[in-house]
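User: My instructor asked us to take a sequence, write out its structure as tokens, and then describe one feature of it. I'm not sure where to start. Here is the sequence I was given:
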Amino acid sequence: MNIPLYYLRHYQSIEKTFWTSICEHSIQIAQHTICYLTPLNSPAFNFIYLQPDSTHHAFMQAYNLFVSQKKNHTLVIPEEMLPKVVKDIEALNYKRDSVTTAMALTLSQQKEVDLPDNQVDIVLANHDLSLWAKPLVSAFYLSEEHDTVIQEYVRYHEDALQQGAPQFHLVLLVNGEPATSMTVTIEGELARFDDIGTEPKFQGKGYASQLIDYALAFCRQQRVEHCFLDASEAGFDLYKKFGFEPLFRYINYVWCNKNTVN
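Assistant: Let's start with the prediction itself. The structure tokens for your sequence are:
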């Protein structure tokens, strides 16, 4: 994909703002290799991010940092890098997990979407993240027994807000019940969408579309010009209809300590 350099820099900047705000440790191994660590021993919340110019030496430093702590994590690799590293990472017992597409939207180019006529309320839940947390199980593909994981993730966001993180936790309510939620991070003219999830019983009814449309309007009110997100394969078409365009694809590999049970 022929992506303008400034777009990539914008994406990397707001991505770093989000992860740095909620992670206990953000460690820049080298210019193009960064680690995000939380106390949770789950690959859903610990990452090594490689950028196209990452070196093998920097990656091995990051790998050793996690493995020395027996810390389960996800290695996030730009698709273009994969041919030159795939043998090495598979030899280190990483298992291919999923594909994520980095996407961007310039708000002046947002597409109109036909929204369902659902009667809903949308609230800012920074004061009560328990509302925002309920749909997160679907956002992270976690089963209900992972209550501890969600509780810890909520705590990270609460701590971030106390530290002044520029985050807005939006919740769409159906008859007062949280149906869909998301996190919007805003820094200057840039915004990033994360944690987009819908409770299973509310899926397929257009609630996520309604919340995203609201979030985009909210960003315009905050004078945002560019919005970014990471789309799962399941969510790609949803974002595309609003005008989000792909920047590049990440391939996600998971490393788990075989003696650890999540």
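For the description part of your assignment, you could build on this observation: The mean pLDDT is 91. Try explaining in your own words what that tells you about the chain.
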